[in-house]
Amino acid sequence: MEMKKTFCRFCHANCALEVQIQDNRVTQVFGDAQDPVFGGYTCLKGRELPRQAAHPQRLRAAQRRNPDGSHSPIGNEAAFDEIAVQLRHLIDRYGARAVATYNGTYAFQNSSALPVAAGFHKGLGSPSFYTSVTIDQPAKVYGWSRVGAWLGGSHGFSSADVVMMIGNNPLTSHYAPPGSLPPFSPSRRLRDAKARGLKVICIDPRASSAAKLADIHLQVRPGEDPTLLAGMLKIILDEQLHDREFCKHHVRGLSELHASIQDYTPHYVSARAAVPAADLVAAARLFARGPRGIAASGTGPEMSPRGTLTEHLIQALNIVCGRFCREGEISPVPRVLSPAAPRMAQVLPPAPLWGEGFHKARVRNLTMLGEEMPAATLADEILTPGEGKIRALLCIGGNPLTAWPNQEKTERALRALDLLVCIDIKMSDTARLAHFVMAPQVSVERADATLLSEWWYEEPYARYTEAMVEPAPEMINEWEFFWEIARRLGTPIRTAGGDLPADRKPSTFEVLDKITHGCRVPLARVREQTRDGGKIFDEAVVRVQAGAPAADGRLDLAPAGVADEIRAVRAEPLDAQGRRIDAGANYTHLLVSRRTRQFFNSTGHDLPALRELGTVNYAYMHPHDLAELGLEDECPVEIRSPKASIRSCVKASLDIKRGVVSMAHGFGAASTNRLVDDEINFDPITGQCRQSAIPVTVTRFVTA
Ligand SMILES: Nc1nc2c(c(=O)[nH]1)N[C@H]1C(S)=C(S)[C@@H](COP(=O)(O)OP(=O)(O)OC[C@H]3O[C@@H](n4cnc5c(=O)[nH]c(N)nc54)[C@H](O)[C@@H]3O)O[C@H]1N2
Ligand SMILES: Nc1nc2c(c(=O)[nH]1)N[C@H]1C(S)=C(S)[C@@H](COP(=O)(O)OP(=O)(O)OC[C@H]3O[C@@H](n4cnc5c(=O)[nH]c(N)nc54)[C@H](O)[C@@H]3O)O[C@H]1N2
Ligand code: SF4
Ligand SMILES: [Mo]
After folding, report:
1. Of 7, 93, 552, 665, which is least surrounded by CB within 10 A?
2. Which bound ligand lies closest to the C-alpha atom of 672?
């Protein structure tokens, strides 16, 4: 028996672990109490890594689909050969665009996976590169490009006086944007910060575990974040609570923004967002008082209508309150393994990442965002005939059949592909439709670095880990798949540090080294110095330097279209209760998305210790709503949106706002994505569909 140190990759938080190894198997995991950032924290999912690795249904070899739809094992070499031949044929006949990759959640739990997949696409010349970001929180990743960014960085959590969490619940999800609550030991961290005086504002239709700890909880009506945030901005600007000095020197569009929100009075916002006007005013003042802090959102508001506008208003709140590090301050989130960008007290001017000059999607007038195409259009790109039609899909660590909007269309699209390849630990709902399924190594079986979690470390923390155990010979690291295919196609794999070698297979360390090219501390040194666990690299502390004298860039609060969109929201028709009237939707409730503690999207549903915490995807509702509908707790119901209906069981919960149904996604059969219409109500910039605040009716389900 042996103990070794590594880090968890069940989710993105990358908690520091000590693992017990026996006979080339990880038998138990513990939090690494010595770790300077994580201090011994783990969650129930991470503690199941040994059972996940040893799961009887885990794929241990590649599978090839038989004509009757069943699958049989195939050797990796034979699978790579066949896949490459089919891809070559499709590329020669239809062009490289016909080949798409979709990077799901688990492409983001392996630092070498996503960059190599991206480098494969660059080498191939195919723009059909998709990730789950564009069905998750794309406006956070791309929204800054029309506003600009502050090169000194935002305020960090540990020095914040106030944090506003808008539709995210890090206590369950271990997820929050930088500057908000870091995902390690989140509950303890939040309680400790409150004890030192931190004020917390939560905006959520549900009394989530974070909202229960908040000083002010605004239990907003789903989808009304734009209204509520515009109302807060108006209070702050009307009362001149903003950072006037910062705005004078570094901001433009302030008066235009202020003019566009004039009609968002506390009275109007209170009626429409269904929050008490006094709480709204108190929250706006508390946030503006700071003086340090951050407002940030999660999935809820981004999946509700107008996600990009919502993110813009959140950015605007941070900007007008000047929530940025100034010259001489230590900049939080130094990022040891990412490109060492300068930290300066100046604005990086806007630089568009979509629209004119970017590849066009063939539907819904959308374009590429940065280097990725919008995933919500992928099903249509497969089904729409003509030039550019996608015919082959390489799916890494994702499960489109449960995760993509419009499940019925997604299934039709996946079945229409000439070639579907999945890399998945099990025969997921999607993998069952695939022509080939490759068996990946799980985290404890591969080398990795903390590249994907470093946007949360306020100090220059980093680490490298070797594989803890020897993987079975047919299990691959995701990057190897792309390397094997590229070699057979004769195309390069482009990375930050140049092309991957094609004449010999690089090691995972070499791949990671190329990917992290130009970072603050070279990977070899990080590897050398973190053999005994994670470390803070003092040489990578960054202080904000003075802005360049000639720098006159400004953060733009009113880029083209924003003021008009704010006015368009104000002009939307409301019913007598202040609810937005959705064309064609005769609904009684709004269904909102949430995470469950025990599962990670569609991962973990097969692990007994996690299943013990519940396997039913309940539709949580307020008990008074149930009574009004004549429904008892736990009774079967049909939930109907304008698009389709699903069956579930209701569960009474006082945490849920009246008029709201709260339900998770990723539970195959009762997938809330059946209810999602991808063709109406999508974000005009990111294509993000309305995956939260979905209009529904709830009725008792009666068997015929
Ligand atoms: N209605 C609705 N839809 C949503 C959401 C919502 O809240 N509501 N959330 C959206 C969000 S935020 C996201 S990120 C997407 C998620 O979208 P996806 O990533 O497409 O879906 P997941 O269910 O996370 O799929 C993960 C897959 O990875 C496999 N897997 C597990 N471990 C490993 C591993 O180590 N290696 C590999 N290669 N595979 C592994 C699992 O078996 C599973 O099949 O869904 C989006 N869709
Ligand atoms: N245990 C666990 N952890 C996970 C996941 C998981 O499935 N399980 N999924 C992972 C993934 S892929 C992601 S992207 C992150 C997401 O991380 P988070 O965004 O923190 O996810 P949630 O915990 O669902 O929190 C979203 C909150 O938004 C609220 N909400 C819904 N609609 C609205 C709305 O219209 N307005 C407002 N203001 N709030 C709204 C919901 O009630 C919910 O409390 O979590 C990750 N972590
Ligand atoms: S929070 Fe995420 S990284 Fe940490 S132990 Fe749990 S699953 Fe693993
Ligand atoms: Mo996500």
Report:
1. 93
2. 1
604 lines ligand 1 (CB under 6 A): no
Distance (Å) from CA 228 to ligand 2 centroid = 19
Question: 154-324 adopts what CATH topology?
Answer: Dimethylsulfoxide Reductase; domain 2 (3.40.228)
Whether residue 11 has its Cβ less than 6 Å from ligand 2: yes
In one-letter notation, the amino acid at residue 256 is E
- 587 to each of 290, 345, 500, 639, how far by Cα in Å? 40, 49, 54, 11
Helix (H) or strand (E) holding 77: helix 76-94
Nearest-angstrom CA–CA distance, 345 and 609: 49
Candidate of 399, 599, 605 to mutate for ligand 1, largest count of ligand atoms within 8 Å of Cβ: 399
Please tell me if the CB atom of residue 676 comes closer than 6 angstroms to any atom of ligand 1: yes
* Cβ-proximal residues to 69 (8 Å cutoff; 6+ apart), any chain: none
The answer to whether the CB of 182 is under 6 A from ligand 1 is: no
In this structure, what token pair is assigned to residue 700? 């008792």
In CATH, the architecture of 2-53 is 2-Layer Sandwich (3.30)
255 in Cβ contact with 323 (< 8 Å): no
- Measured distance CA(18)–CA(8) in Å, rounded: 10
Q: Which atom of ligand 2 is nearest to the CA of 206?
A: 42
The fraction of the chain above a pLDDT of 70, given in percent, is 99
Average pLDDT of the residues in 218-222 = 98
Residue 668 predicted with pLDDT over 80? no
Q: Which atom of ligand 3 is nearest to the CA of 43?
A: 6
Q: Which residue ranges make up each domain of the chain?
A: 2-53, 63-135+355-533, 154-324, 582-700
Flag whether pLDDT at 373 surpasses 80. yes
Q: Residue 321: what pLDDT?
A: 98
The terminus-to-terminus CA distance of the chain in angstroms comes to 58
CATH topology of domain 63-135+355-533: Rossmann fold (3.40.50)
Q: How far is the CA of 104 from the centre of ligand 1 (A)?
A: 6
Check pLDDT > 70 for residue 670: no
Q: Whose CA is nearest to atom 46 of ligand 1?
A: 403
Q: Measure the CA dihedral 170/171/174/179, to 10°.
A: 40
| Whole-angstrom distance, CA of residue 697 vs CA of residue 684 | 27
Ligand lying nearest the CA atom of residue 105:
1
Write the CATH number of the domain with boundaries 582-700. Answer: 2.40.40.20
Q: What's the one-letter identity of residue 640? A: R
Ligand 2 pocket: which of 134, 135, 140, 168 to mutate (most atoms <8 Å of CB)?
168
Determine whether the shortest distance from the Cβ of 508 to ligand 1 is under 6 A.
Answer: no
SS3 category, 172: helix
* Tens-digit pLDDT profile for residues 116-127: 999 999 999 999
> Can you read off the two tokens belonging to residue 84?
């490459």
Task: For residues 240-247, give the mean pLDDT.
Answer: 98
Residue ID of nearest Cα to ligand 1 atom 39: 397
Ligand 3 touching residue 270 (CB < 6 A):
no
Predicted TM-score (pTM) of this structure:
0.97
